[in-house]
């Protein structure tokens, strides 16, 4: 059963009351409600999931900020503190995969594990001559958002679904915030800070995601974290929570239960 925390303005979405605590950090095109079917599948007796909106997204559209990874981390820690969580795991999708590593560094040993779904590494993402203008123009251009969604899911999914995802991202984010967060996740390299961190890490990628692929994970997360492992989801691209939600949640729960 979903509920908001009483007394908090723009309170994060909390699902479940179970003992295993999970902070969920969304992607660039997402929001606290942008997790596909995954929240509907959460076992609320075993887990408590907190789905955060970043400033400028979802319930926090119109909220001013610097729109940085450090700010996401500070807001996330304030949210888990408001829940009274002493320790927790973090699940991050895409941009949230970068943010979850900032939370790890800022949380002072409170993070039990990290699970990244097509996560952006701590190195950021270098763009080439083709992808740079595509991503930088996405704040204003609906066509760019569509092209990014189509590209990162392997050019194989329904036009209807892609259009709905574009509309969702437009409805759920302020253009100024959306534009600024691109620099935060793509242009920030703090890999030296995470190098050698012993936290358990699982990175999950879709076989049809050409941007944040298994090869990228092997060159980044698996090099940075000695206790990192990789899983490739069949029949998924960059948005496994929409494309293969049951398979994704099963992977997430196995990881959480092993912590």
Explain what you see:
- Pfam families: Abhydrolase_6.
- With about 260 residues, the chain is α/β, with parallel strands linked by helices.
- The chain has a single domain, classed as Alpha/Beta hydrolase fold, catalytic domain (Rossmann fold), CATH 3.40.50.1820.
- Helix content is about 40%, strand content about 15%.
- The protein has helices spanning about 70-85, 95-105, 130-135, 140-150, 160-170, 175-185, 190-195, 215-220, 220-225, 240-245, 245-259; strands at about 1-5, 15, 20-25, 45-50, 90-95, 110-115, 200-205, 230-235.
- Strands 1-2-4-3-5-6-7-8 form an eight-stranded mixed beta sheet, with helices on both faces.
- Helix 1 crosses helix 2 (about 95-105) and helix 4 (about 140-150) packs across helix 5 (about 160-170).
- The longest helix has 15 residues, at about 70-85.
- It is globular, with a radius of gyration of 17 Å.
- The model is unreliable at about 1-10 (pLDDT under 50).
List the helices and strands and how they pair.
Elements: E1 2-4, E2 13-15, E3 20-25, E4 47-52, H1 69-83, E5 88-93, H2 95-106, E6 111-117, H3 131-136, H4 142-152, H5 159-172, H6 175-186, H7 191-194, E7 201-206, H8 214-219, H9 221-224, E8 228-233, H10 240-243, H11 245-258
Parallel strand pairs: 3-4, 3-5, 5-6, 6-7, 7-8
Antiparallel strand pairs: 1-2, 2-4
């Amino acid at each position: 059963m979903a509920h908001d925390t009483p007394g908090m303005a723009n309170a994060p979405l909390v699902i479940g009351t179970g003992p295993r605590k999970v902070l969920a950090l969304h992607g660039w095109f997402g929001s606290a409600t942008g997790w596909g079917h995954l929240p509907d599948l959460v076992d609320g007796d075993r887990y408590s999931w907190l789905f955060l909106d970043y400033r400028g997204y979802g319930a926090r559209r119109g909220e001013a900020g610097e729109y940085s990874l450090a700010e996401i981390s500070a807001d996330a820690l304030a949210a888990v503190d408001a829940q009274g969580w002493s320790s927790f795991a973090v699940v991050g999708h895409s941009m949230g995969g970068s943010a979850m590593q900032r939370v790890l560094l800022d949380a002072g040993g409170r993070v039990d594990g990290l699970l990244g779904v097509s996560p952006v590494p701590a190195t950021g993402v270098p763009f080439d001559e083709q992808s740079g203008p595509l991503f930088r123009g996405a704040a204003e251009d609906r066509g760019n958002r569509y092209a990014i969604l189509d590209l990162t899911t392997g050019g194989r999914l329904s036009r209807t679904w892609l259009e709905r995802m574009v509309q969702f991202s437009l409805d759920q984010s302020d253009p100024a915030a959306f534009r600024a967060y691109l620099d935060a996740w793509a242009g920030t390299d703090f890999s030296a800070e995470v190098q050698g961190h012993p936290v358990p890490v699982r990175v999950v990628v879709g076989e049809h995601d050409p941007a944040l692929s298994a090869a990228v994970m092997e060159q980044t997360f698996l090099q940075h974290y000695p206790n990192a492992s990789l899983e490739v989801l069949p029949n998924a691209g960059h948005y496994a929570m929409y494309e293969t939600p049951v398979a994704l949640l099963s992977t997430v729960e196995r990881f959480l239960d092993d912590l």
